[in-house]
Automatic annotation (TrEMBL):
This is DoxX family membrane protein. It is found in: Membrane. Signal peptide: none annotated. Keywords: Membrane, Transmembrane, Transmembrane helix. The keyword Nucleotide-binding does not apply. The lineage of its organism: Bacteria, Bacillati, Bacillota, Clostridia, Eubacteriales. The keyword Transmembrane applies. Its main location: membrane. One of its GO terms (cellular component) is membrane.
Length: 172
């Protein structure tokens, strides 16, 4: 544990964070600038993806669990346009967060949740790798974002919320 949190590993964690951010930003940008995810064709890309996931929910050993297939049928597909925008811009924003090291923990959690949903939908590709890297970076904590904008952002946020809570105590 001490070895993983050693300050000399910060460059390794930064490199992993930037690699992960690049994966997200390039995937999101592809969706934003391509067809089927945003604009007049929004929803068609995700509908195709989700329908292929439903096919994987059948058979003796389904890759998609029945409860997740129900989520796809009853929530995701009827709201395909909304989910399409959430996925495209969510991936892009997670990428920006991780590359810049800004609100890194939020970006790592959002990325891990997206990866989890992709895996629950029956895809593997790089999703297990990205999911694992996100958890490693969450595990090493502040060392994952020591080199990044969080070095400046987090003290400001901490100060803001500390002052706000001090004000609430005074006014009580």
């Amino acid at each position: 544990m001490k070895l993983l949190k050693n300050k000399y590993f910060n460059i390794v964690w930064t490199a992993l964070r930037i690699w992960l951010g690049y994966q997200w930003i390039s995937s999101g940008w592809e969706k934003i600038t391509g067809d089927g995810w945003v604009g007049s064709t929004a929803g068609t890309g995700i509908t195709g993806f989700l329908n292929s996931s439903l096919i994987k929910a059948s058979g003796a050993h389904p890759a998609v669990q029945s409860w997740y297939a129900d989520f796809i049928k009853n929530i995701a597909l009827p709201n395909a346009v909304t989910f399409s925008y959430l996925v495209a811009f969510g991936e892009f924003l997670v990428g920006i967060s991780l590359i810049l090291g800004a609100l890194t923990v939020v970006g790592l959690i959002a990325g891990a949740l997206m990866n989890l949903n992709y895996m629950l939908a029956g895809t593997t590709s790089t999703n297990p790798n990205m999911y694992t890297v996100a958890f490693i970076l969450l595990f090493v904590g502040a060392n994952a974002y020591t080199i990044g904008l969080d070095h400046f952002i987090l003290p400001i946020l901490k100060n803001f919320f500390t002052k706000k809570s001090d004000f609430n105590q005074i006014s009580s």
